[in-house]
Amino acid sequence: MMELKTPARHDPTAAATALPVAIRRPVLADAGTLESLARESEILDVNSRYLYLLLCRDFSGTCRVAQCAGKVVGFVSAYFPPAQPHVLFVWQIAVAKEYRGKAVALRMLMDLLSGLPDNQSFTIEATITPSNGASQALFQRLAAEFACPLRVDQGFPEALFAPAAHESERMFYIGPVVLGSHRGSMKEHTSS
User: What pLDDT, in 10s, does the model give residues 103-132?
Assistant: First the structure.
């Protein structure tokens, strides 16, 4: 396992956080848009519509959508693995092309995390392909926000995806994270 250097904490006064985007839990009617955003990302695996419906219905507490001018422009899906209740696994993050680079993904993650209990230690996990630089940078930034180490290990090697052609998925770990002392930082990112 290697440890990555985390960048300096983000400046909360940056214009990116002023983008008029509302963050909320997904509803069933959002499932088709989540599927479309995953497809349009050109990097995420696209799941079935049925799965996105289940995410919106059964996992809405750990998923978020970003909405601007009535249009869903991003989503994050995450869950607590049943055998690991102190791990938040972030499954997919997608942001519409015209909203990328504006901290929308970070704001969705911070909003999701703001709903978790204070003073509960947990680890944030995600798998990221080597070619997905945007997600790697996002998780480096998230680790910096919480002043936590970011560790990376092998995750799922290419061979596990055979016969499909699929890059390896490296496992990223942030933590341990305890939210109580970070509420101020989280509030800066979740207000629109």
Answer: 999 999 999 999 888 878 899 999 999 999
